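Progress against Task 2.4 (sequence-to-structure conversion) is shown through the following example record, which the project officer requested during the mid-term review.
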Amino acid sequence: MAAVWQQVLAVDARYAAYRTPRWPQFRTQYVRRRSQLLREQAQGGALEGGTRRWYLRVRTRLLAQRYGALSEQSSCRAHSSSALRASRTTLDRMEDFEEDPRVTRGHRRSLSRGSHPGVPRGGPDERPPGVVPTPLAEASRAMAGDTTLSENYAFAGVYHVFDQHTDSAVPKVQFAHDDRHLLACCSLDGTISVCRLAPGPPAVLRVLRGHGGGVADFAWSLSNDVLVSASLDGTLRLWAPADGRCIRRVPDPDGAALLCCAFQPLNNNLTVVGSARHMVRVVNISTGKAARGGAGRLPGRVLALCFDAPGRVLWAGDDRGSVSSFLCDPGTGRLTKASRVVVQAGGSITSLSARAWASREAPDPSLLVNACPDRLLLFRVVEEEGSGAPGLRLRRSFPTRHREQPLRSCFCPLMSFRQGACVVTGSEDACVHFFDVGRAARATVNTLQGHGGAVLAVAFNCDESLLASSDAAGTVIVWRRQHA
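Structure tokens generated for the chain above:
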């Protein structure tokens, strides 16, 4: 689809909620039909570039006159007393974009009728591809294709749209480990849905019900046979995704809302959970009991948790803008407080992702942090002199629109030894943003549009062929990577 038609689709998606407030299922059908019509217009070349831009401006003004201009301060509604709220996002000022000659009509025709395309915006990567030094990297390069970084992350079409959580924010989506087509998402409506994208048409396999409040976070076990979920109702639940059974229910000792959770990567019998009463606890999921010595306290509500790759360091972020580290014994679950770094004074840390390296040029361990307000930060993990405790050194900072929502980001999973590497984040401007961590300037690689609300979470499948994103309006979009 031409860039201007993609801008038109973005406008329609953002105003879709106001067309039929009492019939939410109609919104997805409307956006799908609009995308089909716009795609046909793009293929036919019925209007020239200047006329398309004029149509975009006129349509934007008419929708604003009919439904009112979208403001950054306005909100849809509060879902709970916690900070997890669904807000109406700002309608960006529409720029004049020329058509991207790299998007061919042949590729447009390859999109399925049941999906609406979202063409990314981003400049070409002019740097030569990096050297591939090892057999492991050769295999990785074969998966990624012999393309530039920008081409490799050219997600140019929508594979499917899920709307089973309409009108309730979906704070997290995640693909199962080493699985291309098994996807789960949690919602503030109190449910978790498990979806299968292939073989056959995409479908919701089952919906996990039982929580009495919104589900703020969940995690897959390494073998994908167990899901753990943290809920605002103050309970941790263990699920069997194969049949939807709730295996175990573990209430918080303080009765506090649970905001995040993570499996211990070296010992999936242990789960770490963060609460609204500033506590981090390690729970033995076999017994439902807290691990001895497996508790720590943070200055604020615990919003994000992640382990480093070896599973020895636990990172925790809170709503006071600090990131704390704990040394974790994978056998017993005992936590030892190691360090605390104030990343965003007066703000909050809503997402943490650890990786053993950032790129070929930056082989050190790295930590990716969503810091409110308006920052996506990439840190290098170092050992502090004297204490040996893990510390953080800022490597890169990327601008995002992040004021109210619990936004999440992720590293791209492929170990591609070319120059540069990408990180992806949600944003309150209703877009998905790709950033190249190796670029000194113009770090934006691509921008995906199509959501009607703030994009809260993003997740790749194991081979990067699909990207899932969820928003504050309850829509989950699965994007398909364009292959050369």
